[in-house]
Amino acid sequence: MTRLVLRRGRVVSLEGEEAAAALTVEVDGALRPAISYGALTGPVEPGDEVIVNTAAVDLGLGSGGFDVVHVNLTRGLTARAEAGAHVMKLNYTSLQHAVRPLEERAPARERPLGKPVAVIAVHGQLPCVAWAAAQTCPAARIGYVQTIGGALPGSLSRTVRELCSRGLLAGHVTAGAAFGGEHEAISVAGALQCGLSGLGWDGAIVGPGPGIIGSATALGHGGLAALDSAHAALALGALAIMVPRMSSGDDRPRHRGLSHHTAVVLELLLRPAVVAVPDAGAELPGEGHEQRQGAADLAGYGQSGLSTRTMGRSIEQDELFFRAALAGGAVLGGELGGA
């Protein structure tokens, strides 16, 4: 069985930034939405002949519901590797490409002992955490480490670009299989140590890119990446702050209240961590975790201009999701010196 679903198409139109250009591509007489990652497959123009991966649209997936340019046959066959780059991302695949890893370019001077790292479960928590941390400690430099568990391309997230442009994030590192961020790292541990030392971050947020992998099972979901991220932070001597995925609006029982994505991580953690909560007295699985309540300024966040939707639901329809994420940012900001 061939699992790579590739089709030949022609670019009809495009909009957006070259880093992640939104395209309309004609494939077998039908117009289909697609995306092109300029840093990976090069620039694209209307009329270009392209090969697109159509698997997500063919399967009718709600997230990732667009084709992806695999190669541009018109202008994408003359690229050269970056001088001095020798570490492969997406290695041993047809999309492998060489990068200069952060571990080499900004080596850590010391372990980030005591520095706080907020571990998120889904990308939708990122703007809430970054905004709330900045309200609590405006002068702090907080970086974002993107992991596996959701989308791998760093350029896909409009949220990251907006947070960086507004000064709410001090940098963006794509670690492990994730690629295309401001900096590339071979491992999550390397990204955290270099960011918190070599790049001078005061704290970090670590978690997956947009979307989430799921199978409705205890261990088969992208949220489990938080387990590895928390262990990396704890092993480096950082303070791991777990930002729980919670919901008051999700129709699926496994995500109502405390999501099973977070519950299983708390159960499997080998060492205790701080768990940020919007309300005191929450019942948490696992042993030895320190529950810490954080403020959740829903009204202020609602006026921030940042995303107020998650999984198609508004902040009014899923208040608990946003309150929990904002509490995580408030706890992070408090550790960074906020009131």
Describe what this molecule looks like in 3D.
The protein has 339 residues and is α/β, with parallel strands linked by helices. The chain folds into 2 domains: 6-72, OB fold (Dihydrolipoamide Acetyltransferase, E2P) (Beta Barrel); 102-335. The protein is built from 10 helices and 19 strands. The strands form 5 sheets. Strands 11-10-9-12-8-13-16-17 form an 8-stranded parallel beta sheet, sandwiched between helices. Strands 1-2-3-5-4 form a 5-stranded mixed beta barrel. Helix 4 packs across helix 10 (319-335).
- H and E order: EEEHEHEEEHEHEHEEHEHEEEHEEHEEH
Gyration radius (Cα, Å) is 20 Å
Helix content: 25-40%
Instruction: Detail the poorly predicted runs.
Output: none
| Average pLDDT over all residues | 93
Number of domains in the coordinates? 2
Strand ordering within the main sheet: 11-10-9-12-8-13-16-17
Dominant shape:
globular
Biggest sheet details: 8 strands, parallel
State the total count of DSSP E strands: 19
Oligomer: single chain
Summarize the structure.
With 339 residues, this protein is α/β, with parallel strands linked by helices.
What's the SSE blueprint?
Elements: E1 6-15, E2 21-27, E3 30-36, H1 38-41, E4 49-53, H2 55-59, E5 67-72, E6 87-89, E7 97-99, H3 102-105, E8 116-119, H4 126-136, E9 142-147, H5 158-165, E10 171-175, E11 183-185, H6 188-198, E12 203-208, H7 225-235, E13 239-242, E14 246-247, E15 257-258, H8 260-268, E16 274-277, E17 290-293, H9 298-302, E18 309-310, E19 313-314, H10 319-335
Parallel strand pairs: 3-5, 8-12, 8-13, 9-10, 9-12, 10-11, 13-16, 16-17
Antiparallel strand pairs: 1-2, 1-4, 2-3, 4-5, 6-7, 14-15, 18-19
